[in-house]
Design brief:
alpha+beta; 434 Repressor (Amino-terminal Domain); five-stranded mixed β-sheet; rod-shaped
Length: about 250
């Protein structure tokens, strides 16, 4: 009697239908039907086939070793790997299919990666900008009273306090509250000063007829024009351009 026929007889002797045996062994009824016909091709391989045979023998109170011996004889005794033997004897588990990552997880990972890259770029940008060193301007001095000094806005402020191309109008700038960048020229367009005035510094400018000012932080300074204090020309951080003449 073949293994399939033996299983079918043992099942019937136990008073079980194929449906009953399927429920007790968790093996599909279609697979059990093929096993009773000695067709083990639907078991999923040698390891699973032997496992099914052992499971069926256990449920039917049959001799597991005898069932396995018949299976070996009838199915050709195929050489099996050590992994199959370990799985069959419950020493190790059958490898499972790799888990698939959902598209939502991939989107979250992408967003987090972009956020981290953005933060890194900001940190690198700030570090680079803090490492920039301003060059000291070269000063050109002449014995003339109409000395002209030019500086870039980022250069160190001049320590000179008086600038003149005449005596018709005088303006005194006092950086009383904050430092500021200023640019000063006379009516002829000659530059008297271009650079920073630090908090607490005072600089005086005079010219024959007119003085023109561009102030980078209007709220940080006070002005006196021809000896008279004038109202605030702007607020903190505001860039303001003003001009003063002899009659101001």
């Amino acid at each position: 009697m073949s293994l399939g026929s033996l299983i079918a007889k043992a099942r019937k002797d136990a008073g079980l239908s194929l449906e009953d045996l399927a429920a007790k062994t968790n093996i599909r009824m279609s697979v059990l039907s093929e096993i009773e016909k000695d067709n083990f091709s639907q078991c999923g391989g040698e390891t699973y086939a032997r496992g099914h045979v052992r499971n069926i023998a256990s449920i039917l109170k049959a001799d597991q070793k005898e069932f396995i011996r018949l299976y070996e004889e009838e199915q050709g005794g195929e050489v099996r790997s050590m992994k199959d033997l370990l799985v069959e004897n419950s020493v190790m588990r059958q490898p499972e299919e790799g888990r698939k990552i959902s598209w939502k997880t991939l989107v979250i990972i992408s967003v987090i990666s972009l956020f981290v890259v953005g933060i890194a770029q900001v940190v690198i940008s700030n570090t680079t900008s803090n490492d920039v060193v301003s060059a000291k301007p070269s000063a050109t001095a002449t014995p003339s009273a109409s000395q002209t000094q030019s500086e870039s806005p980022s250069a160190e402020p001049s320590t000179q306090s008086t600038f003149s191309t005449g005596t018709g109008v005088e303006v005194v700038i006092d950086a009383a509250r904050a430092k500021s960048w200023i640019f000063v020229s006379d009516a002829a367009g000659r530059t008297l000063f271009s650079g920073q005035i630090l908090r607490g510094q005072v600089k005086a400018f005079s010219s024959d007829s007119q003085l023109n000012f561009k102030v980078g932080n209007a709220g940080g300074i006070d002005l006196k024009v021809n000896g008279k204090k004038v109202p605030a020309i702007g607020v903190d951080g505001e860039v303001v351009s003003v001009s003063y003449g002899v009659d101001s």
